[in-house]
Amino acid sequence: MIKRNKKTILIGLLSTVVASLIISTSAQAENETDDSTQKSKLESYIKFTKVLNLIDDQYVDELNTSDLVDKALKGLLSNLDAHSSFMDKKSFTELNVQTNGEFGGLGISIGMKNGVLTIIAPLDGTPADKAGVKSSDIILKIDDKSTLGMTIDEAVGYMRGKPQTDIVLTIVRENEPKPLEIKITRDIIKIQSVYAKKIGDDILYLHVSSFDQKVVKDVQEAMQKEHNRSGIVLDLRNNPGGLLDQAVGLVDLFVDNGVIVSQKGRNKEENIEFEADKENSNTATPIVVLVNAGSASASEIVSGALQDKRRAIVVGEKTFGKGSVQVVMPVGEGEALRLTVARYYLPSGRTIQAVGVTPDIIVHPGKVTRDNNSSFVIKERDLKKHLEGELEKISGKKIDKKKDTLLNKTIISKEQIYDDAQLKSAIDMLRVLMITARNQQEK
Predict the structure, then answer these.
(1) Count of CB atoms within 10 A of residue 194's CB?
(2) Could you tell me the pTM of the whole model?
(3) Domain range holding 35?
(4) Is residue 212 among the annotated active site residues?
């Protein structure tokens, strides 16, 4: 009984101190002069501390006051929107590691869509990608834990763990009659954000898988190396986003004037416009951008800005629709708030929040159907294997397949193109743009 009274006095003292601070702060606020508003705020703060007092005093299990406040903060932030959160020391550390391009886990980006935990995209080559996780999969359970009411940060916490340990995701997938269980082995995630390949003799294919701090540099290097290419396919499919400055920088490589993206918030200091720089901009090379439902945030800014600037044709499926600005604000030793402070707006003034970017040409994923008129057709890959065998018989030497593997990493084959209807459509559209650009130069 004595212990309970001490706790009540402690929390009561906290309430008094908080109320005093509120009164002091409120007296200094220049833009809050309405007495009724101040009274309402004060009553709300006092109500909050009273509830903490009652929980701390009466809850069936004894609670640590610091943990209780942390729980309250997590609940408060998660109820603002899907992207705001309170980060404890572990979460804050993981965020810093992730933005530097290497972290432990499954290799998926997740978000809230229609109130449920949804996979935005698996990152290329990661455990989740290899296990068959797909964009737009809904996570029903993480091991034996239901995701109903679970926050994004809580889900991330459960999914990350020691490398080489297993986790089972129960997912709901469109057109599947029942939930799927996918077993994934955790690993250290090393992200290669930019993949550059050749298509034929005249097209540069750039796949940007996420926006870490090296994207602009890597794209610039790829373009300099293949400077003789006449067209670019920029593949942003399953790109969950990342750093804003890298998204702005990527667009700036292809446009030389005007606003790339703007953000608008409640406070004037959050109203910022990011403009293009004329220096070193490639404004002539035709571009086609590939997107899908796994393209979110920074990738939506890039595709939407290039679309609004009439600098590129966007091909694929409607994007995810994540267009809000989060700022990380340290609030203590190793702790921080991730708070939504503004929304992004594309050059035309449209928002992507909950709307996404609609492609100029809608193309659904799948293979391209080819009509073979002959019942007996020798495919290119079969012919190649046959010729390799014959050469080995003649020379007595085996073909160097390491060199062949290296070529496959830098060249997109005809078979790969026909296995990807969206890519095939992008290439066809790009060739039309390239012909148009060439004709205009010849006039």
Answers:
(1) 21
(2) 0.71
(3) 2-63
(4) no
